[in-house]
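Protein in question kept in full:
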Amino acid sequence: MIQETSKVENVVWHSGPPPSIGWWPADLFGQIDFLRWWDGKKWSSFALPEFTAIEAAKIASRKDPRQKSILWAERWW
């Protein structure tokens, strides 16, 4: 598992699967406000905190093709 520290946010980023299903701060480039749904196997496209529940649900159904490049961080909420 890779661990990177973002210089901007001082956040530890991890590769591989997160510890549970759900929404996680997860991104290709260390954007802490990009949230992705982890379904236990694959990451979704990204959503932002200001999205409505309906918008977020649509995003969660779309899987990102760049699965191996997505890093995740501890939840901030």
Summary: Confidence is low (pLDDT under 50) at residues 4-8. The radius of gyration is 12 Å.
